[in-house]
Amino acid sequence: MVISSTEKLRAFLENIGTIGFFQRLFGWNTVRRVAAVAFTEFQMLISEFNSINEQLTQSQSEIKIINNDLKNLKEVNFEFRKNMEILINKYEDLDKNYDTIEKELLSFKETEKLRQEQYEHKITELNSLKEQLDNDRKELQNLREEEIQSHFEEMKRIWINHELMVEEMIKAICSRHQIEYFNKEKVPFKGKPDNSIRICDEFIIFDAKSPSSDDLSNFSTYIRTQAEAVRKYIKENEVHKSVFLVIPSNTVEVIDQFYHNMGDYSVYIVTIDALEPIIMSLKQIENYEFAEQLSPEERDNICRIIGKFAHATKRRMQVDSYFCNEYINILNNCASLPSDILEKTIEFEKSTKMNPPMEKRAKAIPLKQLERDIEKTKQQIEAQDITTSIPDELIDQLPLYKEKEKDLHNSDDIPKQ
To answer: What do you get for the CA distance between the two ends of the chain, in Å?
Structure first.
């Protein structure tokens, strides 16, 4: 800030101290002019002083703030120095660690270089070994393919000659054991099975079957189909109910079932090696009469069982026939129902479907399961309080529920059970 000039004020004050009487008397106007100029300078000085005073106050406040900041800076500087010392210590530790790591790195580099050289050497050896193995594998593959091809050629040869081999084998067995043999041209019934023998006036069929190609995946299915196809022979009364399909020995591994129960006849899957034991077992039928070897008690037991089966069959047919007639009468009576009820009944009839258990071949119906089902049905009947203990011949008089009986068991017409 620029301080105003005070020359006029200083000169005025000096003149006031030295002015005489005559000067005051005759030169007062001059004094007044000088005093006015000096007063103006004085006012300017006062203004400047006030401004300086304000600036001083502001500067003091700023100094106070600066002092506080300086104090904070000192504290920060103290913390900084403290952290600096810590960092310096860490740096020294890191520098030491760096030297150690650098030495280790140099050691690792040397080790890695050695390992890389060993790796390249081993890779070279492995590549050489792989090339040798590839060559050996190709040679083995070629040998294996040749063996497989030779094996398939041998199999084809066996399959082509299979029918002839079976025929010759059966002829030789029949010749040795005095069994009558028939080829496909001499059988006295329809169809032309490959080989047939006659034992006890029955023709036993041995049909030769072999694959048609190298693929054996469908051979088992083909055999099952052929087991169905031999039914045409069984229709003849003179043909035995057991049929033998003779397959090559090298196809046994793909056959999953060697016995087929077809209901009214059986089919056995055998190989050429088993022909003689099978034929000799069948020939034993001629060596005894089964009925003559049974004791009277055994005969009675057989007749009793057959008689019970016959009676049960007839009785079941009789009961089924009775209920069939009753059901037909009920259905005929349905025609007299009101038209709207009859239409609704027909709709429900069309939407109803019954699925009795499906019968599957080669799956027996277990007797214990039937017994459990019957016992369960009896329990349900008893729970419904339905009468079952009544003679069959009085079925027309059978009341449905016991609560509706009119002392049925005490009646003179119906004997007590």
So the answer is: 145
Half-sphere exposure of 341 (CA within 13 A, CB side): 5
Which runs of consecutive H residues, i.e. helices, occur in 230-295? 231-234, 275-283
Phi and psi based region of residue 362 (left: phi greater than 0; alpha: psi -120 to 50; beta: remaining): left
d(CA 38, CA 6): 8
Quickly state the pLDDT bin for 314 (edges 50, 70, 90): low
Q: What are phi and psi of 262, to 5 degrees?
A: -95, 15
Taking the complete model, does pTM exceed 0.85, yes or no? no
Instruction: Tell me how far CA of residue 300 lies from CA of 293, 308, 313, 315, 331, in angstroms.
Output: 13, 12, 20, 22, 46
Distance between CA 180 and CA 416 in Å, rounded? 64
Whose tokens are 């045409």? That residue is 232
pLDDT value at residue 362: 54
What residue segments make up the domains of the chain, in order of their start? Answer: 178-287, 299-343, 375-417
CA gap 3, 45 in Å, rounded: 8
Q: Per-residue pLDDT averaged across 353-367, rounded?
A: 66
* Mean pLDDT of the residues in the chain: 77
What does the alpha-carbon distance between residue 133 and residue 373 come to, in Å, rounded to a whole number? 67
Q: What is the largest CA-CA distance in the chain?
A: 198
What's the confidence (pLDDT) of residue 11? 67
| Rounded Cα distance, 69 and 62, in Å | 10
Q: Is the pLDDT of residue 61 over 50?
A: yes
Core vs surface per residue 215-239: b (16+ CB within 10 A) or e? eeeebeeebeebbeebeebbeeeeb
CA pair distance 90, 111, nearest whole angstrom: 30
CA dist 291 → 308, 309, 354 (Å): 20, 20, 46
